[in-house]
């Protein structure tokens, strides 16, 4: 049916196509490697696939929350990892960052769209400081902690709980409400270093 | 139905509870100091990274067609390697003319090959070692 010339031509075309596929794959991999190096992307995220970016999510239970995560990655074991980007002077992770990432985890685990997916107990803060990107791994709070925080906020707004003051004087120095509150003069020593632990100990030193 | 609370509002609990309450109750609460330049910088960074990460980080697309006869025979239907091969088929091969031909030819031949593999463990081990290399490369 086919002569030797046709078969040779077919083999050459197939080999050429295979070479093209190999080359395009290598090129994509090289670009991705350069991107990861430039971004200082942690190995765990390099090995994960991008599941979503800047997507609105919400849930009704256990508490009604709404938000937009920055990036969501899927690890090879199908667990999801949530990340958030901040631009700031120093690569520090603050309590508010931990709460934000933890709240995203609660929404993801309770929203209809992601209900069957497991979310990792840690996330990453992507901190852009003077053009340099840092990734910081963050251990997330539990769902119970987030619910307790939500309820505390409701109680504060209802006036049934007395709000705590800031834990560092630095937060008060530029505060527009300083005249009404008096601020704090000294660092308030926390019994726990993480918001999760502080909340578990009754929230007495929280805020 | 309760109004949904924005995550960024809940996160403010980590900064200062007193400020949160005063901003809500006092008349000048809305006049909070806002560094507009920093907000603009942050939004710009978000938009730029959103565009770049979508372009340069390997995107996830769930495999729509669950068939993958040889890989299923070698690894099992829910194995990570099978899923990775399905993703390669859906993300890469289906977008290329030769890839579509390859898939068609594969689905013609693979049930026979899969049956043979199920009968002969030696063949299965051989194919597994080849597929392992391919999956590592993907």
Report on this model:
Chain A is α+β, with helices and mostly antiparallel strands. In chain A, 42% of the residues lie in helices and 22% in strands. Chain A has helices at residues 4-39, 43-46, 95-110, 143-158, 170-173, 178-181, 195-200, and strands at 49-59, 65-74, 80-87, 122-129, 132-139. Chain A has a five-stranded mixed beta sheet, with helices on one face. In chain A, helix 3 links the parallel strand 3 (80-87) and strand 4. Mean pLDDT of chain A is 83; it is low at 202-207. Chain B is elongated. Chain B starts with a strand and ends with a helix. Chain B is 68% helix and 1% strand. Chain B contains seven helices and one strand. The mean pLDDT of chain B is 79. Chain B has helices at residues 7-11, 17-25, 36-56, 69-75, 80-91, 97-119, 121-137, and one strand spanning 5-6. At the A-B interface, helix 1, strand 1, strand 2, strand 3 and helix 3 of A face strand 1, helix 1, helix 2 and helix 3 of B. Strand 2 of chain A pairs parallel with strand 1 of chain B.
